[in-house]
Amino acid sequence: MKYNVFKTKKEASKAAYETFKQYLKPNSVLGLATGGTPTDFYKEIIADYNLGNTSYKNNVTFNLDEYVGISYDHPESYHKFMDTNLFDHIDIDRKNINIPDASSEHLAEEIKKYQNKLNNKTINIQLLGVGSNGHIGFNEPGTFFNVGVHVVDLNEETIEANSRFFNNDKNLVPKQAVTMGIADIMKSEVIILLAFGENKKEAIKSLFDENEPTVDIPCTILKNHPNVYVFVDEEADYNK
Ligand code: PGA
């Protein structure tokens, strides 16, 4: 695991983008994340794209997760997030974008479909955030490492953390999500994990301690992955 500390989220995101670009190929399959963490990273993608340095015409993307129970158009849906923060600003071909359709009435079928699509591709570069409880994607503590795409009940800490996007009202936060499983995440060739802020420090620390991976802190499975880059700001630096 390569550990990189920068003063700010902005600087760390810039450095993470440089690493991403080293691996990026015109036809790379990209695993993408949402939330407060990757916003500056996506700004770096857009800025470089606007300079004419990159094209995403032939890239395929898979998002980690989507809330159950809110529509595509909801301002906090992850579909909307991706359009606003990235896809509307680059030349990605819409048919190459994959995000779980968690508003489907046939959720079980949708999950199977998403799993099949993932099984037929290899994610070359996976971008990850991490929850303060160590979740990756929405794989909450206790999730087995061998599971694929599934519906998850969000735990209290996650609902509390994400209420900041829902007028600070926990009741407005969806209670379930569809997420890629840890097995899917672990199959990606390169993982770039970003973490910013004091509340991520414990999760980051767990990546570098002497303990074996534990389902109680899902991100610890990344110790078993051969190519992980971690970018943090000073507040999330576990050495401090
Ligand atoms: P955040 O969430 O980026 O909104 O902090 C990260 C995560 O829960 O994976």
TrEMBL record:
<comment type="similarity">
    <text>Belongs to the glucosamine/galactosamine-6-phosphate isomerase family. NagB subfamily.</text>
</comment>
<feature type="active site" description="Proton acceptor; for ring-opening step">
    <location>
        <position position="135"/>
    </location>
</feature>
<dbReference type="InterPro" id="IPR037171">
    <property type="entry name" value="NagB/RpiA_transferase-like"/>
</dbReference>
<protein>
    <recommendedName>
        <fullName>Glucosamine-6-phosphate deaminase</fullName>
        <ecNumber>3.5.99.6</ecNumber>
    </recommendedName>
</protein>
<comment type="pathway">
    <text>Amino-sugar metabolism; N-acetylneuraminate degradation; D-fructose 6-phosphate from N-acetylneuraminate: step 5/5.</text>
</comment>
<dbReference type="InterPro" id="IPR006148">
    <property type="entry name" value="Glc/Gal-6P_isomerase"/>
</dbReference>
<dbReference type="Pfam" id="PF01182">
    <property type="entry name" value="Glucosamine_iso"/>
</dbReference>
<feature type="active site" description="Proton acceptor; for enolization step">
    <location>
        <position position="65"/>
    </location>
</feature>
<comment type="function">
    <text>Catalyzes the reversible isomerization-deamination of glucosamine 6-phosphate (GlcN6P) to form fructose 6-phosphate (Fru6P) and ammonium ion.</text>
</comment>
<feature type="domain" description="Glucosamine/galactosamine-6-phosphate isomerase">
    <location>
        <begin position="28"/>
        <end position="225"/>
    </location>
</feature>
<keyword id="KW-0119">Carbohydrate metabolism</keyword>
<feature type="active site" description="For ring-opening step">
    <location>
        <position position="140"/>
    </location>
</feature>
<feature type="active site" description="For ring-opening step">
    <location>
        <position position="133"/>
    </location>
</feature>
<dbReference type="GO" id="GO:0004342">
    <property type="term" value="F:glucosamine-6-phosphate deaminase activity"/>
</dbReference>
<keyword id="KW-0378">Hydrolase</keyword>
<dbReference type="InterPro" id="IPR004547">
    <property type="entry name" value="Glucosamine6P_isomerase"/>
</dbReference>
